[in-house]
Amino acid sequence: MKIAILGAGSFGTALSFVVAKNAKEVLLWSHSEDIVADIETNHVNSVYIPGIVLPSNLRASHNLEEVLSRADTVLSVIPTQVTREVWTTARKFLPPEARIVVASKGIECETNELLSDVMLEVLGNQWRDRVFFLSGPSFAREIAEKRPTAITVAGYDIDGVTKMQSVFVSDFMRTYGATDVIGVQLGGALKNVIAIAVGICDGLGMGNNSRAALITRGLAEMARLGKVMGADPLTFMGLAGLGDLVLTCTGELSRNRSVGIKIGQGLHIDEILGNMRMVAEGVTTTRSAWELAKAKNVAMPITEGVYQVLYEKRKPFEFISKLMTRQMKFENE
Predict the structure, then answer these.
(1) Which residues, 6+ apart, have CB-to-CB distance to 278 below 8 Å?
(2) Of 298, 301, 260, 297, which Cα lies nearest the Cα of 282?
(3) In this structure, is the dihedral angle defined by the CA atoms of residues 65, 284, 122 and 114, taken in order, positive or negative?
């Protein structure tokens, strides 16, 4: 098996440790010639996962055609907001029988579309049963260190999902299958918004009670929007929902929680993002989630509050105060 990975950031590089065990050759594409040179010369990705030697059957390239040629499986681990752009070029080199696994977590901000819609618009509906979506609680660094991890891969075709499970199986990775493509994607995207909210609370020093409340009520928001968009609400109780939400809201490696912490400590979002090399998908996802909630008339007060802090200059403490003084409701409303 030949596996291509598009995106040499932390997660794309980390997934190479999983799939390399099940492939003859793994080719990793990066838009950065410096990263390619580092991998080819030193066999490490010093920018995103420093200090860990990459699999012996991994090579890197700046050439999309070279990476995609003869690939059986393609992992798309590109930042959400450039996925359409990259795949508009990449589709020209895609083998007709290849399968694609999208591991990016976000919502396209210009269209508010999930990546399942974006990919089929770029590739055509004939690819519907050969595109899959990977999500779940999985910090890149811990995958690269081969720490036990469980993820979910979802697709429209059950037989295809089973085949993709075998691609991602290893002694440190357990992969569950699912058919709720919408729910798995929304879980991976929306948990980043809630993680920013939790980070704001942590930055303000509000304690563990506040964190637990935001995680729980954030999960309710995710499930409400998911149900309206056609997802199974039970999906949000699984790895791609609750699992990823808890990890991202509590883990020290969480980029989105880190953004929230710095906001709570008084830094401006532009200053925070200007000092980050890695992408915090939750910042752009917040706008899309807020717009989707308005368009579909779904109550998402935590998401609305994060939007106001990021885009309308609401002070972090005011965001929390507004949540606490909302009209009383029953918990299942």
Answers:
(1) 9, 10, 48, 255
(2) 260
(3) positive
Strand partners, 101: 75, 132
Contacts of residue 81, defined as CB under 8 A and 6 or more positions apart, other chains included, come to 106, 108, 109, 284
Q: Collapse the DSSP code of 162 into the 3-class scheme (helix H, G, I; strand E, B; otherwise coil) and give the result.
A: helix
Catalytic residue, candidates 24, 146, 163, 191: 191
Token pair in block for residue 89: 């070029």
Cα atoms in the 13 Å half-sphere on the side-chain side of 201: 23
Domain at 189-324, CATH class: mainly alpha
**How high is the mean pLDDT in each 10-residue block of the chain (333 residues)?**
96 96 94 96 96 96 95 96 97 96 96 98 97 98 97 98 95 97 98 97 96 97 98 97 98 94 93 77 94 97 97 93 91 82
Q: What is the CATH number of domain 2-179?
A: 3.40.50.720
Does the annotation mark 191 as catalytic?
yes
Report d(CA 119, CA 124) in Å as an integer. Answer: 8
Domain spans in the chain, listed from the N-terminal domain onward? 2-179, 189-324
